[in-house]
Every structure is written in structure tokens, then in C-alpha cells.
Amino acid sequence: MKKIFLSILTIILLQSSTKKELSPNIILIFMDDMGYGDLSCYGAIDYRTPNIDKLASEGVRFTNFLAAQAVCSASRAALLTGCYPNRIGISGALMPTSKNGINPEETTLAEMLKQKGYATGIFGKWHLGHHKTFLPLQHGFDEYVGLPYSNDMWPVYYDGKPATSTQHMSAYPVLPLIQNNDKKEEIKTLDDQAKLTTLYTEKAVEFIKKNNKKPFFLYLPHSMPHVPIAVSDKFKGKSKQGLYADLMMEIDWSVGEIMKTLKENGLDKNTLVIFTSDNGPWLNFGNHAGSSGGFREGKGTSFEGGQRVPCIMRWKGTTPEGVVCNQLASTIDVLPTIARITGAELPKNKIDGVNILSLIKGDLSQSPRKTFYYYYRRNSLEAVRMGHWKLVFEHKGRSYMNQLPGNDGYAGKAPEDILIPMALYDLRRDPSEQYDVQKLYPEVIAELQKIAEEAREDLGDDLTNRKGKNVRASGLVE
């Protein structure tokens, strides 16, 4: 009888162990407007990000990783659904006056993991609709503390003083801090904003401790370094590069707190940590903006500075240490990859992401993503990618080039109607997109035009007045 009991106990323990191995915790840290060159492991100067650098040394650092679009709401919609945002009707940055948001028919990463018994929490910026029907608790999250949209959508001027009637910010409502479905308090000053990074971090640490006995998904979308930037007294004046770098040091501290908590709770080896950004830097804010790391342009453009972002994935015992991955990948690939890792069922609606688990495991001979579509504005196909080749189509767009940036929180000019000519770039040799090689490679142009035509048929294209066959509507309140 004793032997039978011991055998049963052994089977239960083995099943429990297998289940735990198949159900790693997922932590997704998503920065706002952080550029490719804003971490010391990606080339930042005059400050260090040692905790994030350690993540890179213990995992895989991606150098060819693209945000789905170079703007807030669209990028977040893509991350959480595995879809190009124009497929699901989300474009641009949703405003406090917007009546649309993420459609309840779309399956988010949180909803997908809930089906596998995960606890789910979000602490930070949402920006997928501020009406109750669009908030996180209605889309798979168990708890939420954060801002419903960007931290500059408030009635405060660049100098931190209340906006006057002649300043456009005066039309915005007071910025709410939401807890679950209700307003917890109001963010009225830069000092209030300076508390956000620490608040989100403390909530994330509490969530990990509370759920250390079951699998969890922690989504930590920081409100910064999107302007206005503000930093706690812990880090103010600590860098040699001013307030922006002070803030990056505080973000690094936040990552350190997360990793320390994992270790203290015995979760270090069974947690996949992903650190990335929603788009490139908002360059016309000058010393309150980040660095594109030498790539062309920044936020709001389809050039690499707008969409190529840092990405680090660390899963101790699964990711090899210190690997640099140059293969093409994107935020839309996160959902299907996590589905593969956890055994979760993929959404029933069509998605665009691909499984990049082979890259996370360090198999750099694989190229799971072959192509990429650079959509912007409502539904404009501004460029397409095939491997290291990128074809940019003629379009009017934003440019920071030859413009004097602002300083100390004030914006410089960034014209939105600059005519961008059609050009072919070999990103392997010309990552800064300076040399148009159309005349040298007509056969490459032909291949990329075929890819563009497939995109237009599937998703549409405002630049060529095409309607896509497989697009879906966003959610809408009356």
C-alpha cells in the first residue's frame, strides 16, 4: 500500500513539474518612445543601464526588431493581438475624445493566457480606449493600475503650469490614474508624474509576490520616456546627460526590482522576460527625447528610427546567454510565440505574427519572419521589407531632418507633409537609409512590389486607394 501511495505521489509530482515547465511566467516590459540607442547595451553614452544590460548578457538581444507601427495606440494594439493594427481598425494615438478602442471580438495576449490559468495584471499605460468597455479588465486582465492614454494628454503646458485658453492642451481633461475600472486619483503636476515609474514598479512587485504559486502574465507598459518626462528624487541629477538619462536610470532600477523579486520568490528560472519599446524617439523634443541609435528619423515615420527598437528576451535555462540576434522580428510575433511556449490556443481571427521561439532559443540559422509591412496613418502602406531589402513608397510624412529640435520639454518643429520619394535601401549595408539603389536592383524592386500587392489586397492601402479584403473594425461606443 505504501509503495502504491509513493508511486501515485511521484506521478503527481512529475505532472506538477511538467506543468510548471510548460507554463512559464511571462513579464512584458513595454517602453514608450524609447529609442534604439537609449540603453548602454545598445550604445547609450554618459549613463549606464546595468540591470537591462544584465538581461541582455543572460539572454538574446535583438538588433533587427520592429515595432508594428511608429505610434502609441497602433503599436500597443499590435503587441497585444499579434495583428498589424490596421487589420483591427486601430490607427494613430487614441485621444481622450475618441469613441473607439480595441474590439471585444479580438483576443488579447491576456485573454489567450487566461485560458491556460494565468493570473494577469497590467501596471502602466493602456491607450486602447478609455471607455469602460475598452479598459483592461474587459480584455483579459485581472487587475490594472495606470493611465488610460498618453501622459501628455492633460491640461498642462510644457513648463508644467496649467494651460491657458490659447494653448491646445487646455482642451484636455484632467489626467486620470485608473485602478481596475475606476478613477483612483488625478495626475495634475509634473511632481505627480514623477511618481509613476515607482508606482508601476511597486504594483508589479506586489503582483509577482501575490501570484508566485501559479503562472502569471505581467504587462508593464511604462508611461515614459514619452514626454513630459519626470523622475523621482531617487534619480534626479544622477546622470551626466540630464533629465532624460536620469529617467532611463530609473527605468533600469525598475527592471532591477522586478528581477530581484523573481529571484527572491524562486521564479528566476521559470520566467520569460521581454523588454522592448512601442516605437522610436520623439526627436523634436531634443534633450527630452531619446536616440535612434544612428537610424534615420524617429517616432511617427516608417524609417528605421521610427520602428526599429531595442528588444531583449531572457528566459534562464532556455535562452542562451549573450546572444545577439540579427534576424528580422517584430512585436506582432510576441503573441504567437507565447502561444507556442505555453500551449495556448491561437486566436480564431486571422493574425499576422509568426512564432520566433527558435530565435529565442538561439537558433540563428532560422528566419521565421521573411517580410514586414510598414503601415502608418490610417492605412497607408509606406514601405515593405524582404530580408535586408526595404522599398519605401512615395508618400507625404513627418520628418525631423534639418529641423531645430526643442529643448527642456518644449517641442521643435516636425513637419508632417514632407514628400518622401520612392527608394530602395539595402539595410545590410545602409541601415541609416541614405543611398537609394533602385537602379542597381530592378529584380529586387519587382519582388518587393509583389509583396506590397499582397499587402494591399489583404489589408488595403490609402496611398493607392485600395480596400483590404481582411480588415476588421475597432470597437465603438455610441
Q: Could you walk me through the main structural features you see in this protein, from its secondary elements to its overall organization?
A:
This protein has 478 residues and is an alpha/beta fold. It folds into two domains: 23-369, 3-Layer(aba) Sandwich (Alkaline Phosphatase, subunit A); 373-476, 2-Layer Sandwich (Arylsulfatase, C-terminal domain). Helices cover 25% and strands 19% of the residues. It is built from eleven helices and 22 strands. The strands form six sheets. A ten-stranded mixed sheet has the order 8-7-6-5-9-1-10-11-2-12.
Integer-rounded radius of gyration: 22 Å
Tell me the number of helical segments per DSSP (H or I, 4 or more residues long).
11
Please list the strands of the largest sheet in the order they lie side by side: 8-7-6-5-9-1-10-11-2-12
Oligomer: single chain
CATH architecture of the largest domain: 3-Layer(aba) Sandwich
In terms of DSSP E residues, the strand content is: 15-25%
CATH topology of the largest domain: Alkaline Phosphatase, subunit A
Shape: globular
Protein name: Sulfatase
Organism: Emticicia oligotrophica (strain DSM 17448 / CIP 109782 / MTCC 6937 / GPTSA100-15)
Family: Belongs to the sulfatase family.
Keywords: Hydrolase
